[in-house]
Amino acid sequence: MPIIAVSPEVSIAYEGFGDPADPAVLLVMGFGAQMLAWDEDLCRALADRGRYVIRYDNRDCGLSTKFDDQPVDMAEFVAAVSSGDLPAALAMVPYRLTDMADDGLGLLTALGIERAHVVGASMGGMIAQTMALSAPDRVLTLTSMMSSTGESEYGQPSAEAQAVLFGPKPSDRAGYVAAAERELVWASKRYGDAAALRRLAGDSYDRAYYPAGTGRQLGAMILSGSRADALRALHVPTLVIHGLDDTLIDPSGGRRTADLIPGAELLLIPDMGHDRPRALWPQLVDALVRHTR
Hints:
Order of helices and strands: EEEHEHHHEHEHHHHHEHEH
Distance between the termini: 28 Å
CATH superfamily: Alpha/Beta hydrolase fold, catalytic domain
Radius of gyration: 18 Å
Largest sheet: 8 strands, mixed
Number of domains: 1
Strand order of the largest sheet: 1-2-4-3-5-6-7-8
CATH class: Alpha Beta
CATH topology: Rossmann fold
Structural class: alpha/beta
Shape: globular
């Protein structure tokens, strides 16, 4: 799998599907998840419809650059944010979503791609929004999937989903894989697939088990703040996709995103949670192909 320098400090692992001569679609993954969470079969399905699909590992995840020299204790960070001690929280985290957005744009530059369709899921949606805000001339279209605007009033998780997200995970492979089933709390109620969650967890563990990066990614997400004012002035064609079963980022996050961005299309999908069930891939691929024409 190629790894390419996108700045003097960061190298990014990526994979391409399809013909590089086709319109480029950059897939941006979410909090703590490797590029594997963009299922290879889904990438190929989109490539088969005439798109050059690129998935990649965010910094501090997978095979991309790790910031080991700047450790963040997640419990201490959450405590600082919860108590309102923002100076302490800010001092803990070495980067923001703008830096992660620059990684994605830097990857396009390194690949010789001037402009691309950008699709982000969850935290990846926040990164994709930030890419469109910082470099609208390079983003042909934006798709913000199961994401939100950085405003605390919207897109909040249920108590059960938050407990799973921030709960400790076993460090041994068998325990880590078994614990993946807890994520059914935010999956599609109809199509939630425990076996698929375990399989992804096992593949991710074997490829690059790296829990240390999650504290820094969480800090980047929380401390980057609201994008509401900037999104009101965004003039990039935008599709917002959100599952109505999502309990990790409530659908209000998607609705708010679509309300703020001028001309944005909102696609609310029944039977989809904070996941991309295989049964819904035809609908998702059709929507992405329409939007990225």
